[in-house]
Amino acid sequence: MQSVNPNQVQKTIIQQLQAQNPLFMADFTITDIVLMSENTIRLHSRGEEIVNIDITYNCGSDLYDVKAYRLRNHGLDVKLIYDRNGFFWDQLNQAIDSIIERSLRA
Description:
This protein is of the alpha+beta class.
């Protein structure tokens, strides 16, 4: 399998998450960062619940959109649990924290 390198937008998203919280992967039980489309990364959180968090950068507005999906039954049951637009970079960690907390209550 060929490894894929992140593009500049994907690198920037990761750097901004790390700037706010250098331990964000451990704090949010992130086990993988998946490179999705050109402007999107997926954080795979495997804590008490399995949650995929998609962060998309919108070039036009210079803001981020965040969607999260809860996976159950070995990925056969997928439910959208979070869908918000218009985040500044320094709000991303707070959004992820909210998603993780919400998934534990669901």
